[in-house]
Amino acid sequence: MLISEFARATDLSVDTIRFYITKGLLKPERSVKGGSNPYQVFRKEDVNAARMIRLQQTLGYSLGEILALNEEYRAGEHSPERTIEVLQSQIARLEERRAALDTALSFLRGKVNWIKAGKPEGAPRLEDYQC
């Protein structure tokens, strides 16, 4: 499939797809058509790869981390032990992020309640909350 059809199949913009290609995250085949600018042809496997990239981003991985992990996987260097290590590391990072978000939410809720109460003395102070 060509890039426009691939964009529809993955719900990604053409610009995002091109960016992923530039970064090496997607590697479509080149067609003989198109002359000096050969068409990029995507396979079903590329659709799955694009969905995996989006999932990994949702899980908090950077594009650099995604590229490194995907290259490990393609090279057959991703043992179950390595997978567990990577996943546990990401779980720890997400738990830290959740704690920071919980703190930020507490501050914002305190600020809203303070405003609703007519802004009495003792406004919530950011330094009272550890982010």
Structural description of this entry:
The chain has 131 residues and is mainly alpha-helical. The chain has a domain of 76 residues: Multidrug-efflux Transporter Regulator, Chain: A, Domain 2, CATH 1.10.1660.10. 63% of the residues lie in helices and 3% in strands. It contains five helices and two strands, in the order H-H-E-E-H-H-H. The chain has a two-stranded antiparallel sheet with strand order 1-2. The longest helix has 37 residues. It is elongated, with a radius of gyration of 22 Å. Pfam families: MerR_1 (PF13411). It comes from Agrobacterium rubi.
List keywords for this structure.
single chain, about 130 residues, mainly alpha, Multidrug-efflux Transporter Regulator, Chain: A, Domain 2, two-stranded antiparallel sheet, 5 helices, elongated
Topology summary:
Elements: H1 3-10, H2 14-23, E1 29-30, E2 40-41, H3 44-58, H4 63-74, H5 80-116
Antiparallel strand pairs: 1-2
**CATH C-level category of the domain at 3-78:** Mainly Alpha
Q: Strand order within the widest sheet?
A: 1-2
Question: How confident overall, as mean pLDDT?
Answer: 92
Q: Describe the main β-sheet briefly.
A: 2 strands, antiparallel
Could you spell the SSE succession in H and E letters? HHEEHHH
> Using only CA atoms, what is the Rg?
22 Å
Supply the CATH architecture of the domain at 3-78: Orthogonal Bundle
General shape:
elongated
Helix count, per DSSP? Answer: 5
Contiguous runs where pLDDT drops below 50 for at least 5 residues: none
Structural class: mainly alpha
Structure summary, number of beta strands: 2
How far apart are the termini?
46 Å
Give the DSSP E fraction (strand runs of 2 or more residues). under 5%
Task: Assign the CATH topology of the domain at 3-78.
Answer: Multidrug-efflux Transporter Regulator, Chain: A, Domain 2
What level of helicity do the residues show? 55-70%
